[in-house]
Design goal:
Elements (H helix, E strand, L loop, with lengths): L1 E5 L6 E6 L3 H18 L4 H17 L1 H12 L3 H25 L3 E2 L6 E8 L2 E5 L7 H12 L3 E5 L5 H14 L6 E4 L6 H6 L3 E7 L2 H13 L3 E5 L5 E4 L5 H13 L11 E5 L3 H13 L19 H16 L3 E4 L14 E4 L6 H4 L6 E7 L2 H9 L3 E2 L1 E5 L3 H10 L5 E4 L14 E2 L2 E2 L4 H5 L3 E8 L1
Parallel strand pairs: 5-6, 5-8, 6-7, 8-9, 10-11, 10-16, 11-14, 13-14, 16-17
Antiparallel strand pairs: 1-2, 3-4, 4-20, 9-19, 12-13, 15-18
Helix pairs in contact: 2-4, 2-6, 3-4, 3-6, 4-5, 9-10
């Protein structure tokens, strides 16, 4: 089998890769486990030096890596550079903090000494998506390696070049050759990889169906999983919101990565007192965004990652319109080559439509008008997803209480769009997955939290 990397801006083949055989994959896992037996003995200071070097490489070659992301999945060049910088940040963060996060915890009991220690598990499998082809990997790899684990990556097939580049970064930084490896393999290989006895746990970022499949396979062999899945993030705009700021923030969130982000704003729930003004401002700002060649600095929105994904998105839009939604902007596939889809705004959206119930993974906004604050919260929570939400209000204290206690999601922001940050835990509830990445919570997902009792 051959894996192909195709430029979504023009449809041209970038490179073909020969898929690894089952024996080649098993051999890599064995070598990674052999590497782990030595790597787990290293000190935090030794690991930190190499992780800091990884950060240096990411910053020094950020333009090169951005160009690779742009070519393989259509991310704008400026977003690619920012992604490389964010990866460097997470490397530095865990290099600086891993030892503190995993420090032994003394617990007073009837023993002469009792404590909790955090020990690495072994080789961890990461199954990662194409939309943030560097960031999704590094936010797993940095804490996993600093904890003393080794990692193997099954990346999305269309970003195989990114996968191999990441493997090379860790090698150049001085990590043992097999401390982090990338498989060149399609999704059909994942179950067998999970079942390999040397794989100790699995993390996946991707769609909810993919998460369910990986969770089932891992559960069948009793292996720990962390899943960061889809979302239909609800942004609540209340009567007293600063509409200019809210509209700007909401547009920027919806169009991050051409709308292809699990935590991009997707449903905008607006109280009726300000709904018309918000809609007007939102559409005006969406209209100003430039769609085009992702390698050009003026471009705000590049193509979708693949034409099939673009076509699926368009079907969701058409079905929503057929069910009563109104398209006030976009909604038409442009002529010419490339997987482009324009900034699109749907109004009159209600439950039962794809624009309300499903994740629209592209630059399509669903505006939902509600009567009041209570209705807005109820509609925001009326979703199978629970990844991120935001609330906009000039009454910051009230908004904080709504975010903290009334919205059902793993991440709730006030007067700002949802984003990941190495210092804060990241993850969802309901069909958006379980477990947490980042902060001290993330590094503790793949360690043995071991009790030691000394009489």
């Amino acid at each position: 089998m051959t894996l192909e990397s195709i430029n979504p801006a023009n449809g041209r083949l970038l490179k073909s890769y020969h898929e690894m055989s089952d024996n080649e994959i098993a051999n890599i896992i064995q070598k990674s486990n052999d590497a782990w037996l030595e790597w787990k003995k290293t000190t935090f200071d030794q690991r930190s030096l190499l992780m800091k070097k990884s950060a240096e490489i990411l910053r020094a070659r950020s333009t090169e890596f951005a160009e690779l992301m742009t070519a393989e999945m259509g991310k704008t060049l400026k977003e690619g550079k920012a992604e490389a910088e964010k990866c460097a940040w997470v490397c530095d963060y865990y290099a600086d903090n891993a030892e503190t996060f995993l420090k032994e915890e003394i617990i007073e009991t009837d023993a002469s000494k009792s404590f909790v220690t955090f020990q690495p598990l072994g080789v961890i499998l990461a199954v990662m998506p194409w939309n943030f082809p560097f960031w999704q990997v590094f936010r797993f790899a940095a804490p996993a390696l600093m904890a003393g684990n080794c990692g193997v990556l099954k990346h999305a097939s269309n970003v195989t070049g990114c996968a191999l580049a990441i493997e090379d970064i860790f090698k150049q930084a001085g990590f043992p050759e097999n401390a982090f490896r990338s498989f060149v393999a399609g999704s059909k290989k994942v179950q067998a990889i999970i079942e390999n006895p040397l794989i100790k746990a699995v993390t996946l970022t991707g769609s909810t169906p993919a998460g369910k499949a990986v969770a089932a396979a891992a559960g069948n062999v009793l292996k720990k999983t962390v899943l960061e899945l889809g979302g239909s993030d609800a942004y609540v705009i209340l009567d007293d919101a600063n509409l200019e700021m809210a509209a700007e923030s909401c547009v920027n969130s919806r169009l991050i990565n051409a709308g292809q982000s699990c935590i991009a704003a997707k449903r905008f729930i607006v109280t009726e007192a300000v709904a018309d003004n918000f809609e007007r401002l939102y559409v005006e700002k969406m209209q100003k965004k430039i769609m085009g060649d992702p390698s050009e600095n003026k471009t705000d929105i590049g193509p979708q990652a693949r034409t099939d994904l673009r076509d699926e998105l368009h079907e969701q839009v058409k079905k929503s319109i057929k069910m009563g939604a109104k398209c006030v902007l976009g909604g038409i596939i442009p002529e010419g080559s490339g997987a482009f889809y324009p900034p699109t705004v749907l109004t009159n959206v209600s439950k039962g439509m794809p624009a309300f119930d499903e994740e629209l993974f592209g630059p399509v906004a669903a505006i939902i008008k509600v009567k009041n604050e209570d209705d807005a919260i109820a509609v925001a929570n009326d979703s199978v997803f629970g990844l991120g939400t935001a609330v906009f209000s000039e009454d910051v204290k009230k908004a904080e209480q709504i975010a903290a206690k009334k919205l059902d999601a793993g991440c709730c922001f006030v007067n700002a769009f949802v984003k990941s940050d190495p210092r804060l835990p990241f993850g969802g509830i309901k069909q958006s997955g379980y477990g947490r990445e980042l902060a001290h919570y993330g590094i503790k997902e793949f360690v043995n939290i071991k009790t030691v009792y000394v009489k």
